[in-house]
């Protein structure tokens, strides 16, 4: 199981970061957030900014758990 979830611990931090970013972002996110910000203000996009903080906290927790 460790090999499946951790990739045999051979992935670099850049590849892991790109994977997290790619799973968090999509075309509907880009288009949808732009449309929501245009119609009702930038406040609708704040939750996406906060998601970055949540991902960092979750990453720190995972770092200590799996290392």
Task: Give a quick summary of the entry.
The chain is mainly alpha-helical and 67 residues long. The chain contains four helices and no strands.
What structural keywords apply?
67 residues
Description:
Helix content is 78%, strand content 0%. By secondary structure, it is mainly alpha-helical.
Write the layout of secondary structure elements.
Layout: H1 2-6, H2 13-24, H3 27-40, H4 46-66
Share in helix: over 70%
Total domain modules: 1
The quaternary organization reads as single chain
What separation lies between the terminal Cα atoms? 15 Å
H/I helix tally? 4
Strand % is under 5%
């Amino acid at each position: 199981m460790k090999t499946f979830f951790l990739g045999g611990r051979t992935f670099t931090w850049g590849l892991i970061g790109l994977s997290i970013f790619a799973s968090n972002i999509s075309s509907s996110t880009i288009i949808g957030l732009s449309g929501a910000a245009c119609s009702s203000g930038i406040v609708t996009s704040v939750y996406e900014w906060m998601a970055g903080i949540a991902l960092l906290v979750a990453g720190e927790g995972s770092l200590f758990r799996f290392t």
